[in-house]
Amino acid sequence: MNPFSPTFDFHKDSFINNDVNFLRNIKLSLSQLGNPWRTTFILGMRRSGKTTLLSYLKQQLSSEKDTVVISFNSSPNILVDILAELQDRLSKKTIDKLNLSFTAFGLSAGIDLKDKNKFPSFQLDLKKILEEFKKQGLSVLLLLDEVQNNTQELRTLFSAYKIVYSEYQINIVAAGLPSAIDSLINDDALTFLLRSNRIELEPLTYESILMSYKKLFNSRNVTLEQLQTMTEATSGYPFVYQLIGYYVWNESEDAPVTDEIIDGAIKFARKALFDQVYSKVYSDLPNTPRELVLAIHELGDHQVSNKQIQDKLGWDLNKVSSYKATLTHWGIIEKEGYGITGFKPPYFDQFLDYYFS
C-alpha cells in the first residue's frame, strides 16, 4: 500500500510533525482549565498540513477514555452537528432528562436553529451537556477544520464557548487560512480570542523529509542522490512532499526507481500544486494584494525594494508597507527590512509565469 497521502488524510507512515511537543501540549490542556493551549488556532496556506495535523490529534486522542473528541468542518449546520455529536456520547435516558432544545430526534417545538436568534438555545444546550460530561469526568475537544470568514454560526459557537470554557473542560483547536482566522479573532464580540494560542505552520525541514523518504523507500533501492533530488524539489511544502512520494512509489512498484521517474514526479507535483493550490490562492486574493503580487513578479520576484513598488504602482510608502505586511502574514511573500526577498511558497514565481506570462 502506498504510504503517501496527497489528499491529506492522516497516514502515520508519512506523517511529519515539526513540533514534537504539539501533542503533549494539547493533551495537557485537556485537564487544566488555565492552560493557554485550550484555544489553539492553526494557520497556514492551502495544503500546508492543517487538516493532517487535526487528523493526527483525533487519531492520537480519540482512544483516551476520559476525552470526547469531535471533528467537523465549518458550515451553516455547524451548531446542529456539534450538538448531535455530543449527544451521541450520552444515553437516550440522559438526553431526555436534560430537556434539550435540540435532540438527535429533532427540534423541540418553537425552536429553529436556522434562526438568527439561535444563540440562547445553543448555549443552554451546550452547557447542559457539558455539565453532564463534568459529572462523568469527561473533557471535550472540538477540532474545527476549514474555518471560513467570520460567519454567524462561528460567532455563535465561540460566543457560547466564551461563556462555558472557564467552568467546563472544553477545548477548541481550529485550523484555517490566516485571513479567515484573522477575521474571526478580530471580531469585536470575540476579543477574548486574541489571547488564544496560534501556530503558524512552517515548511518541513530538509532533514525530516530526507529521513522520511529514506525510511519509506528503503526497500526500493533508491540512491542517496535521488532522495536528495526528491527532497530539494519539495522546498519543505507538505503537499509537494506527499505528491512526489506518491508518484515515485506508484511508478516504481514493478520497476527500479529511475531519474526519469523522479523527474516525472516533480513535474506532476508542480502541476498539481499550481492547479489545486496556487490558482485558488491567487483567485482568493482581493484586488489590491493581487496587484502587488503581479507587480513583484514583473519586477523580478526577488530583492524588490519599496521604491521599485512605489514607482511601478504609484502607491505611497504606507500603502506599500501595509499590503506587504498582509501578504507576509498570509505566507505569500518573505520580506526583509525595506525590501522583499521573494515569494515564500515554492515555485510560486513559476506559477505566475505559467498562467500570466
Structure report:
This protein has 357 residues and is an alpha/beta fold. It has three domains: 22-200, P-loop containing nucleotide triphosphate hydrolases (Rossmann fold); 206-281, no CATH class; 285-356, Winged helix-like DNA-binding domain superfamily/Winged helix DNA-binding domain (Arc Repressor Mutant, subunit A, Orthogonal Bundle), CATH 1.10.10.10. 50% of the residues lie in helices and 13% in strands. It is built from 15 helices and ten strands. The protein has helices spanning 22-29, 50-61, 78-87, 92-98, 119-135, 152-164, 178-185, 206-216, 224-234, 238-251, 259-284, 287-298, 306-313, 317-329, 348-356, and strands at residues 39-43, 67-73, 102-103, 106-107, 139-147, 170-176, 197-200, 304-305, 333-336, 339-343. A five-stranded parallel β-sheet has the order 2-5-6-1-7, with helices on both faces. It has a three-stranded antiparallel β-sheet with strand order 8-10-9. It is globular. The protein starts with 21 loop residues before the first helix and ends with a helix. Residues 105-113 have low confidence and may be disordered.
List the helices and strands and how they pair.
Layout: H1 22-29, E1 39-43, H2 50-61, E2 67-73, H3 78-87, H4 92-98, E3 102-103, E4 106-107, H5 119-135, E5 139-147, H6 152-164, E6 170-176, H7 178-185, E7 197-200, H8 206-216, H9 224-234, H10 238-251, H11 259-284, H12 287-298, E8 304-305, H13 306-313, H14 317-329, E9 333-336, E10 339-343, H15 348-356
Parallel strand pairs: 1-6, 1-7, 2-5, 5-6
Antiparallel strand pairs: 3-4, 8-10, 9-10
